Amino acid sequence: MNESEEFEIESYKLKKSGALRKNYAGIIDAFLVIITQTILFRYFPKLWNPTKFVNPSGLMVINVFLTFIIYRFLTIIAFGKTIGMAILNIKFAKQNESQLSFKEKLLSVLMIYTNSVDCYHVE
Fold first, then answer.
1. Rounded to the nearest 5°, which phi and psi values hold at 111?
2. What pLDDT was estimated at residue 74?
């Protein structure tokens, strides 16, 4: 394989993850966010008061989206990957070094990958 698809970082052999593997990690993360959201609104109903909002279902979508962004921000900044990525053994990496800069991590929170950043899995 050429250098852009396979390389070694910190004695781990990394290979570029396929779209299916990335999507499975995203589904796991979405499931965790929905479970967390449900538990929060079940035990803390004052967090969500749909009577003051014109479209209650729209508020629910906004809340789930914001919870997902906050979840990704906290896990990627703290650990460098989300729980779904950890379960499937995926990590963010560049082709020449293992650590991402803070700016690249922030872009990864919003699922915007720069040219040199992608998801790789450890074999």
1. 60, 30
2. 92
